[in-house]
């Protein structure tokens, strides 16, 4: 088993450029995108919905961490070689009340406090459902997701907030529904139709994971609930036809600074480097027993994919050597990248017969936000797409897109450096093609030179040739988190 490498110093990007992508964007737009370099592929049709913090302050009170920023949805609809942009904030209860009050009324999970110091924050344990992490179109509903509470439903055409959505009574008020659903392209429990698989977790001294599977109409077809020992920070999971797999990071939670009004809940997470990370393998049948496999200590937010092969279970996951917090920086904008570990892509091979594992580092370059052809989710796959640092070593902001051929190890990169900063790449297959990498990579990035955001469309079979089209927005969109492309909906221009 290899060990994770140490972070090293990096200074190959301009901090002021990077910071300038974290300005609040209070405006809401709707327009046809006119400024386009290159040609949008005629066969590319659908809508890229993305979510992320649109506000990095509440009426001038800065958030302590971007993850505490109010969710703003962007939609770029593409059809017949043309594109249309729209963005809107999710009208969460917190967003509406804070706008009216002109100041923060809630504490953020990642350390944002109400004005007034600890006395004003102590024992205020209300959660602000900020709806800022992901957005997905499923069952003819557009849902903005935040992992600790229920989704908000939006009108897919106008992005107007319709309210909290309980998924036809599946969720109870306030019940968690993760921001990382997985779409199984062919679910044998549902006549080989696609299904959306997601989970909610309730944690404390022990943890309860509830798993849900929904058919393409959004109807619940399968649910079960499992208990696991210990505190569990579960942001994402992976699926195969037979399993849901979670990584229980080796962390503990000391609630005292949170209760005392000094820190946010997520700032009270402590990484225990002597404890293994634990793979929790839950059979999707809802009946067979859970299995656990110990792995090297690492911290994982995101999994790229999982699959079953040769009697083993494989997981490709972005691993950090430890919990990548701000390492004492007062402010995220002052974060010292050289002190924060970078994400690296590892492949874990789990033997469920012996409950043992092996691990190999596949991508050492700092990386996050993996994606793949949606038809290969949960299945053996060859091509992975991921946001990466421009420089091959050390931690730095994501500035490039990498395509990795997992069969040969060949890597192809397109970089937006020195002044572009990338996020999550999204692979869109060419309609009716069965070739795994036949399609496009959509990468929304921030161009510090213009102070504006752009959408690059790359031909996934010719990454190093650069974008076939770049859609230049006349404004910026703050760095976002996750999104999805749907071929099932286009906003009428
Ligand atoms: Fe995530």
Automatic annotation (TrEMBL):
<keyword id="KW-0479">Metal-binding</keyword>
<comment type="similarity">
    <text>Belongs to the carotenoid oxygenase family.</text>
</comment>
<dbReference type="Pfam" id="PF03055">
    <property type="entry name" value="RPE65"/>
</dbReference>
<dbReference type="InterPro" id="IPR004294">
    <property type="entry name" value="Carotenoid_Oase"/>
</dbReference>
<feature type="binding site">
    <location>
        <position position="235"/>
    </location>
    <ligand>
        <name>Fe cation</name>
    </ligand>
</feature>
<feature type="binding site">
    <location>
        <position position="482"/>
    </location>
    <ligand>
        <name>Fe cation</name>
    </ligand>
</feature>
<dbReference type="GO" id="GO:0046872">
    <property type="term" value="F:metal ion binding"/>
</dbReference>
<keyword id="KW-0408">Iron</keyword>
<feature type="binding site">
    <location>
        <position position="180"/>
    </location>
    <ligand>
        <name>Fe cation</name>
    </ligand>
</feature>
<keyword id="KW-0560">Oxidoreductase</keyword>
<feature type="binding site">
    <location>
        <position position="302"/>
    </location>
    <ligand>
        <name>Fe cation</name>
    </ligand>
</feature>
<dbReference type="GO" id="GO:0010436">
    <property type="term" value="F:carotenoid dioxygenase activity"/>
</dbReference>
<protein>
    <submittedName>
        <fullName>Apocarotenoid-15,15'-oxygenase</fullName>
    </submittedName>
</protein>
<dbReference type="GO" id="GO:0016121">
    <property type="term" value="P:carotene catabolic process"/>
</dbReference>
């Amino acid at each position: 088993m290899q060990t994770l490498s140490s972070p090293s110093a990096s200074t190959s990007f301009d901090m002021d450029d990077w910071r300038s992508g974290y300005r609040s964007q209070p405006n809401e737009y709707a327009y046809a995108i006119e400024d386009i370099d290159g040609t949008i592929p005629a066969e590319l049709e659908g809508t890229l919905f993305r979510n992320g913090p649109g506000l990095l302050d509440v009426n001038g009170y800065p958030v302590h961490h971007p993850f505490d920023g109010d969710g703003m949805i962007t939609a770029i609809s593409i059809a017949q070689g043309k594109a249309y942009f729209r963005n809107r904030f999710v009208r969460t209860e917190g967003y509406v009340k804070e706008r009216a009050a002109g100041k923060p009324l809630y504490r953020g999970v990642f350390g944002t406090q109400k004005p007034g110091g600890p006395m004003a924050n102590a024992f205020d344990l209300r959660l602000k459902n900020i709806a800022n992490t992901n957005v997905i179109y499923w069952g003819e509903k557009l849902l903005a997701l935040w992992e600790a509470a229920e989704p908000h439903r939006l009108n897919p055409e106008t992005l107007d907030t319709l309210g909290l959505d309980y998924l036809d009574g599946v969720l109870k008020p306030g019940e968690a529904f993760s921001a990382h659903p997985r779409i199984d392209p062919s679910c044998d429990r549902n006549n080989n139709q696609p299904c959306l698989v997601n989970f909610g977790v309730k944690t404390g001294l022990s943890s309860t994971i509830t798993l849900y599977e929904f058919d393409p109409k959004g109807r619940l077809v399968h649910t079960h609930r499992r208990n696991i020992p210990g505190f569990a920070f579960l942001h994402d999971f992976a699926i195969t036809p037979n399993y849901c797999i979670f990584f229980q990071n080796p962390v503990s939670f000391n609630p005292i600074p949170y209760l005392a009004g000094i820190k946010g809940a997520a700032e009270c997470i402590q990484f225990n480097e002597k404890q293994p990370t634990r793979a929790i393998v839950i059979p999707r049948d809802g009946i067979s027993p859970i299995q656990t496999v110990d792995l090297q200590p690492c911290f994982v937010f995101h999994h790229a994919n999982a699959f079953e092969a040769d009697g083993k279970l494989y997981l490709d996951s972005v691993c950090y050597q430890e919990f990548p917090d701000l390492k004492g920086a007062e402010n995220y904008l002052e974060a010292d990248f050289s002190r924060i570990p970078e994400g690296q892509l590892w492949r874990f091979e789990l033997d469920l017969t012996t409950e043992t594992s092996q691990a190999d580092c596949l991508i050492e370059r700092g990386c996050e936000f993996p994606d793949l052809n949606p038809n290969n989710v949960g299945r053996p796959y060859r091509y992975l797409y991921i946001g990466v640092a421009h420089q091959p070593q050390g931690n730095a902001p994501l500035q490039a897109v990498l395509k990795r051929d997992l069969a040969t190890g060949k890597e192809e990169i397109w970089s937006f450096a020195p002044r572009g900063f990338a996020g999550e790449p999204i692979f869109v297959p060419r309609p009716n093609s069965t070739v795994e990498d036949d399609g496009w990579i959509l990468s929304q990035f921030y161009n510090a030179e213009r102070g504006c955001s752009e959408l690059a469309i790359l031909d996934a079979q010719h990454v190093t040739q650069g974008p076939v089209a770049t859609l230049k927005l006349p404004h910026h969109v703050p760095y976002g988190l996750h999104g999805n492309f749907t071929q099932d909906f286009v906003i009428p221009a």
